[in-house]
Amino acid sequence: MHVPYQRVNEIINGRRGVTPSTALRLSKFFGVSPDFWMNIQLRWDLYFAQQAEAAELNSINPVENRVATVY
């Protein structure tokens, strides 16, 4: 894959994210799309953001659905 083994080790152990460049290399090596790897990273990032910001997110009141009236 032409990447340092430390990078792969850090990704596996959750200490480093998958960059677009790494996603391209992983996709070529494993024969899957780069989107596969980027989606895994996105889900990981969203999960941890949701955990870290849970209290603040719970305090946000959603906007009610409203129909716009044109005069």
From TrEMBL:
PANTHER family registered for this protein in UniProt: ANTITOXIN HIGA-1
Protein name: HTH cro/C1-type domain-containing protein
Domain HTH cro/C1-type: 1-37
Native species: Desulfosarcina ovata subsp. ovata
PROSITE patterns in UniProt: HTH_CROC1
Source organism superkingdom: Bacteria
Any GO molecular function: DNA binding
CDD domains in UniProt: HTH_XRE
NCBIfam families linked to this entry: antidote_HigA
Keywords assigned: DNA-binding
